[in-house]
Amino acid sequence: MYTNIFDTHAHYDDERFSEDIDNVLTALPAVGICHVVNCATHINSCEKSRLMASEYEYIYFAAGIHPHESGEAQEDFINELKGFAAHEKCVAIGEIGLDYHYDFSPREIQKSVFEKQLILAKELSLPVIIHDREAHSDTWELLKKYKPQGIVHCFSGSVEMARDIVNLGMSIGLGGAVTFKNAKKPVDVAKYVPLDKLVLETDCPYMSPVPFRGKRNDSSLIPYTAQFIAELKGIPTQELIDITTENAKNIFRILV
Ligand code: NI
User: What is the distance in A from the centroid of ligand 1 to the CA of 232?
Assistant: First the structure.
């Protein structure tokens, strides 16, 4: 069994956990999970994440408006986010970014809500957690402009783009998608990304690694992703876990 596992990206406030959330969360420390960052997707989700972080010692949270939800953002959302960010266990602004695959919100609104949150993160000196799906060039323009600290999660771009992001000082989050059969780009990125710029994540309930692809994901499945990447890197799995956990603690400034 592995220990010291940091899940940098979870959505435990998702409705797919509503039936058994306490059982799922209570079971995690016994399978080696030491930290989880629950990434909010809208204001109500920030509220739920804050409650979860207050209740469970190993849960932290990121406050933010996901691109899917940006069309619903109210005028004063930045002030609301500031309120959540003041909580001692709010460690980032996220999940924020652009999604041109689903286009659930108009692109102009996605861009404006994303940019305002990048500015907020700067103002509060907090790292960001970025979602970029089929919006690489617009995401990159804004990252280049604001140069935030933090993570580009579930990274789906090319090695060239990963290199740009690493050169900017940001880290790459990899999860179950790396293990998928057709995952050429994520595998190339996993091979490329320097160990000090890599963090592990689930994006649960989504993105379960093989052999659980399609089933509900949770942090206990991270070892499957870790084993896969460790093999690509040619290092022991526990070493990969320890390095990525240290990276995540540095990014989120978690001392314990
Ligand atoms: Ni996510």
Answer: 24
What tokens were used for 220?
């206990």
User: Taking all residues of the chain, what is their mean pLDDT, rounded to a whole number?
Assistant: 97
**Per-residue tokens: 153:** 């999660």
- Interhelix angle for 184-192 vs 159-167, to 10°? 40
Answer yes or no: are the C-beta atoms of 202 and 176 closer than 8 Å.
yes
Ligand 1 centroid to Cα of residue 233, in Å, is: 25
What's the 10 CA to ligand 1 centre distance in angstroms? 7
Question: How far is 9 from 169, CA to CA, in rounded Å?
Answer: 19
- What's the pTM? 0.97
* 47 Cα: distance to centroid of ligand 1 (angstroms): 16
Residue 11 Cα to ligand 1 midpoint, Å, equals 7
| Res. 156: pLDDT tops 90 | no
**Domains of the chain: residue spans and CATH:** 5-252 (3.20.20.140)
From the CA of 87, how far away is ligand 1's center (Å)? 21
| Ligand 1 centroid – CA 95 distance (Å) | 6
**Are the CB atoms for 150 and 129 separated by under 8 Å?**
yes
Sign of the Cα pseudo-torsion (5, 238, 203, 159, in order): positive
189 contacts 157 by C-beta, under 8 angstroms: yes
DSSP 8-state class, residue 135: -
Write out pLDDT tens, residues 160-190. Answer: 999 999 999 999 999 999 999 999 999 999 9
- Quote the ligand 1 centre to 236 CA distance (angstroms): 27
